[in-house]
Amino acid sequence: MGILLGAMLLGLIPALIARSKGRNAFGWWIYGSLLFIIALPHSLLVKENLRGTRRCPYCAEAIRAEAVVCRFCHRNLVHGLQSDDQLIRLIERLDKGDKEKRAQGSALPTPHHSPAVSSFPWIEEQTRNTELQQARRTKFLYVVILVILIGGIGAFALYPHSTSIDSPSVRVTPPTEATSQDDLTRFVHKHGQPDTDDSTQYDTPRPPIVTRWLIYKKAQVRVWFVPDAKVGIPPPYKAWKFSTFQDESTQKGISADEVERRLKKS
């Protein structure tokens, strides 16, 4: 479950990058969840999908070419659609008027300082606003990616990756470095799974000293263990300490050498 959650969170990274380029975010999310290692560089290298779309002059988001209102910033785009044509026609008229007035000897600014450009300060302001919005969107995207990565790593780290051996119904697994000090685990790893594995840790009422025992019927051996914890602490217990060996038929104690001999023989 933790691995699946981590993959779904990581899949959002290429999905957000692809969305900023006019791609289908859901499809890229599925793609990124399944093949994140491939999807991430693919989303960074893929070109913008501007087919049938254009950039809003105010927020720089990709919108449909025929849109008259931006669906992101809700700005009216009718003026933006006509501004370029109007500007070109106005410059042409001003240039024509400049030539006529120069022919009459009037002192006018040179074409390099044409008043047509200075009469539209909103163009430069709009460009600065667009660049600022793009920078903010880029920073926001990086923050989202960082949060997703931290969340995915945290979820993966907190998810339990191994099965506890505390419950009597769970078979004991071979020892690892983390369980090398557990006598029960080492004993089972050396002599094999017992015929019976039971304990009093979940008895009601629970006895003051909890015990756990393994029975090897063919060898007629019972091995007793106690929790490696302070008396009175409730289960589950992470480790078990050896207590004693017992003959299953006579209920008397037997030596470790006798247990070894019986288990090897069986």
Please outline the helices and strands.
Layout lengths: L1 H18 L5 H10 L1 H10 L7 E3 L6 E3 L13 H26 L11 H4 L2 H38 L24 H9 L4 E4 L12 E5 L4 E7 L12 E8 L8 H10 L1
Antiparallel strand pairs: 1-2, 3-4, 4-5, 5-6
Helix pairs in contact: 1-2, 1-3, 1-6, 2-3
Number of strands: 6
Strand content: 5-15%
What overall form do the CA principal axes indicate?
rod-shaped
Annotation field: number of helices: 8
What is this structure, in a nutshell?
The protein has 266 residues and is α+β, with helices and mostly antiparallel strands.
Can you put this structure into words, describing what you see?
This protein has 266 residues and is of the alpha+beta class. The protein folds into two domains: 2-158, no CATH class; 177-265, no CATH class. Helices cover 47% and strands 11% of the residues. It has helices at residues 2-19, 25-34, 36-45, 78-103, 115-118, 121-158, 183-191, 256-265, and strands spanning 53-55, 62-64, 196-199, 212-216, 221-227, 240-247. The strands form two sheets. A four-stranded antiparallel beta sheet has the order 3-4-5-6, with helices on one face.
